[in-house]
Amino acid sequence: MKPVGKVLCATGIVAGFLAFFWKDPFNPESLSGARVLLTGASAGIGEQMAYHYARFGAEIVLTARREAVLQKVRTSLYEGRHRRFGLLPKQQQQISCQHDKFSFGTVEQNQLRGLDYLVLNHIGVTRFQMWAGDVEYTRWLMQVNFFSYVALATAALPTLEKNKGSLVVVSSLIGKIPTPFTTSYSATKFALDGFFSSLRHELIMQKRNVSITLCILGLIDTDAALENIRGKVHLTASPAPEAALAIISGGAMRMQEVFYPWWLQYTCCLWVLFPYNRDQVLQSYYNYSSP
Ligand SMILES: NC(=O)c1ccc[n+]([C@@H]2O[C@H](COP(=O)([O-])OP(=O)(O)OC[C@H]3O[C@@H](n4cnc5c(N)ncnc54)[C@H](OP(=O)(O)O)[C@@H]3O)[C@@H](O)[C@H]2O)c1
């Protein structure tokens, strides 16, 4: 056999062994009875997270603005005969709120008696277009996508600390690598990385036992995302249920960062390692002809 063949064979055997003995370190049972507050749960990835958490036996409180849609998610959870849904009396098992006008105190005092996971996932309506100078929109999006996360996390920290809990922050590859058509959205996601990665240092330095998991997602096949990028980007979207599971398992394992799909981690490394010509490569994925 040629040396190349030997190397390939050896690599295959090692890969086979690794696959056979590798065990997923995520234990879904660790979520049984966990108290979870999940924002943006009426649609997309948040909705899928609600189904997973319920399947794992967590006690969840969901938030979104559209009460009727949230109610449908709740009905599906009951129809799925999930063991536990909500740690609250039936009529309070969901809340509806707008996070640009919302204070965590409302939920904490009136709805929850404890918290193990705060999962921050909601986003305001995203415009996928060239910057047109709308500063007010950017200010508003910062409020929904960033400041409300800071406010909710700050209010939840004492409770999370008491329960050695976890903060899970859903971000995007666009919060690591800036892309066209996403000026305001990208700014809000970079802000999340800056704030929560700095806060993580501080919690560790103060020996406060609250984990922070920042989730970096690529394009996911939610209705909102697919509608936004239609005809503008040459990229394939990954499935929302898998993205939701990656977020939940990363949070449960107290990981600092979760990348979904997994290879995004290497994309970020390459982005930093090869600063030349990378913009041209990235722009080639976008459908745009200059005027
Ligand atoms: N989909 C992707 O391709 C993708 C890629 C990378 C990262 N992500 C991240 O993944 C997370 C979820 O994205 P998604 O695609 O699932 O979003 P989505 O389908 O648009 O869902 C957004 C959720 O947030 C809620 N929401 C919207 N505005 C709100 C407000 N002002 N206050 C409170 N809740 C509000 C929505 O419910 P109501 O309308 O009922 O309020 C909905 O439940 C986001 O953090 C996003 O940045 C997504």
UniProtKB/TrEMBL annotation:
Entry GO CC: extracellular region
Coiled coil: none
Gene3D superfamilies from the UniProt entry: NAD(P)-binding Rossmann-like Domain
InterPro entries: 11-beta-HSD (IPR051253), NAD(P)-bd_dom_sf (IPR036291), Sc_DH/Rdtase_CS (IPR020904), SDR_fam (IPR002347)
Keywords, ordered alphabetically: NADP, Oxidoreductase, Secreted, Signal
Reactions mediated catalytically: cortisone + NADPH + H(+) = cortisol + NADP(+)
Keyword Oxidoreductase: yes
Gene Ontology molecular functions: oxidoreductase activity
SUPFAM superfamilies documented for this protein: NAD(P)-binding Rossmann-fold domains
Record localization: Secreted
Family statement drawn from the similarity comment of this UniProt entry: Belongs to the short-chain dehydrogenases/reductases (SDR) family.
Function: Unidirectional NADP(+)-dependent cortisol dehydrogenase (in vitro).
The name this protein goes by in its record: Hydroxysteroid 11-beta-dehydrogenase 1-like protein
Species for this entry: Phaethon lepturus
